[in-house]
From TrEMBL:
Residues covered by the RHS protein conserved region domain: 27-60
Organism the protein comes from: Pseudomonas syringae pv. aceris
Record-given protein name: RHS family protein
Gene3D superfamilies recorded: RHS repeat-associated core (2.180.10.10)
Superkingdom field: Bacteria
Any matching Pfam family: RHS
Coiled coil: none
NCBIfam families for the chain: Rhs_assc_core
């Protein structure tokens, strides 16, 4: 089968099946949810040939219509009939427990939980099996709010010699070369709403910078239980969210 996807994603649009001895190929069309998971597949006449209901972490609860085999699941995942697992490019995912069965191939750069899929399965996807989201809550009165609303994370003083421990202890954010991020969405929401309406949450998948990027992650002593990671350098084109819509 040949699969066609939405540009820049693993959300399927159509599937073309070629069978030996048949003159014309069969074309099927996918109908997905908000994160690109197939809910239905229709044929060229618009008839439903496959339809499924899912559990929260991607296991099929019920095949409502199963006239044509269809094994795509969460973005980037392919259902393995023999094992019941989902092949997720770089590792296998178990939809019954919502976890990968092998460790993250990028190690701790993906977070301290080496088996986590994503913080929220109705919002986030992990098409390659190595992404996890990090968040930064920026309140309405924060000095960096204007940049944050444009999807930019910029430290107060990029050339500062402040250490991660000093940043984590507090009272140096106005002279720090770091911006604070967390793996806990609820913590980011708290910071975004700290000064009332107008704050935002920045989001980005974890992972190492690409060659030529002028930023990197640094581990922070988690003295305050905030699941914190520090970003040194400037990043742009980050996702921007209203904290009350997550």
């Amino acid at each position: 089968s040949l699969y066609l996807y939405e540009p820049g994603s693993y959300a399927p649009l159509a599937r073309v099946d070629e069978k030996e001895g048949e003159v014309e190929n069969k074309v099927y069309y996918f109908h997905t949810d908000q994160i690109g998971t197939p809910l239905e597949m229709t044929d060229a006449e618009g008839q439903i040939v496959w339809q499924a209901k899912y559990r929260p972490w991607g296991a099929v609860e019920k095949l409502v219509v199963n006239e044509v085999e269809q094994n795509l699941r969460f973005q980037g995942q392919y259902f393995d009939v023999e094992t019941g697992l989902h092949y997720n490019t770089f590792r296998y995912y178990d939809p019954e427990i919502g976890r990968f069965i092998t460790q993250d191939p990028i190690g701790l750069a993906g977070g301290v939980n080496l088996y986590q899929y994503a913080p929220n399965p109705i919002r986030w996807t992990d098409a390659l099996g190595w992404a996890c989201e990090l968040f930064r809550g920026v309140s309405a009165n924060h000095p960096a709010i204007d940049d944050a609303r444009k999807g930019i994370a910029k430290p107060a003083k990029a050339d500062s010699t402040i250490t991660p421990s000093e940043h984590n202890y507090g009272a140096v954010s106005d002279v720090s070369p770091y911006t604070s991020w967390t793996r806990d969405l609820e913590i980011a929401k708290w910071w975004a709403n700290k000064d009332g309406p107008g704050g935002v949450i920045l989001g980005t998948p974890t992972g190492a910078p690409k060659p030529g990027d002028n930023w990197h992650w640094e581990l922070s002593p988690d003295d305050w239980g905030e699941s914190e990671l520090l970003l040194k350098g400037v990043r742009s084109k980050l996702e921007v969210f209203n904290p009350n819509e997550l």
